[in-house]
């Protein structure tokens, strides 16, 4: 089986590295990157990485993908639509086009429609893990017209893929929803420990948060926090507002903390502390129903 990569940055390099580690020379790998021939410093990196994992670099998009069984698009998300529309003219009959980018789900859907017009199977793939650690085995969700056929082919190459029912865009929708938490948690951690370091309490705060997070598992903690938000949001908004005053005294910019207060105030404005007489719902289903009752979701 042969694979081609459009864009040879971190994603394509890591997947290629994994393929070579597991399958040696039994897979044919080609790639095209717009930086080739540019003379820019990044071109050197592209060429060095390709040489390391023995990927053949093509001089054009057409040459890179025309003979591939599976084409992976790994450009920046903003260019996914433009690149896909160009690439569909060069994908061979029977091949599958897999878009690995973080493009808007609506763009993935549009690309799926555009490829369907040419009779080409399209896959929206969303990576959910740490690529440099997992390489080609990074967990992926896939949707779109070519997803069902792509899953067994990708699994043959030890790729960790899960089928999501629905058109292109569904897999990316899940990833982007998840990203609000995963990237938001990273930003919140950075801000918390900027504050803790300035206050000289970073070790105590780390130990305290670790103890809280380790109790009962994530799902239990998330359910408890979401349900409690409906009755405790107002009090907690005041608490974080006090934290912001201290942050400003220490010259730590409260970006995430300010957003936290805004979200807590929005929850408090639902008025459920009084309506529920201070008793939080016990399940996520109950919390969701209360959100919907007030058109919060």
Automatic annotation (TrEMBL):
GO molecular function, one term: NADP binding
Domain 6-phosphogluconate dehydrogenase NADP-binding positions: 46-144
Phosphogluconate dehydrogenase NAD-binding putative C-terminal domain sequence ranges: 196-265
SUPFAM superfamilies tied to this protein: 6-phosphogluconate dehydrogenase C-terminal domain-like (SSF48179), NAD(P)-binding Rossmann-fold domains (SSF51735)
Top-rank taxon, per record: Bacteria
Pfam families found in the cross-reference section: DUF1932, NAD_binding_2
InterPro entries reported for this sequence: 6-PGluconate_DH-like_C_sf, 6PGD_dom2, 6PGDH_NADP-bd, NAD(P)-bd_dom_sf, Pgluconate_DH_NAD-bd_C
Protein name in UniProt: Putative Phosphogluconate dehydrogenase, NAD-binding,-like protein
Organism: uncultured delta proteobacterium
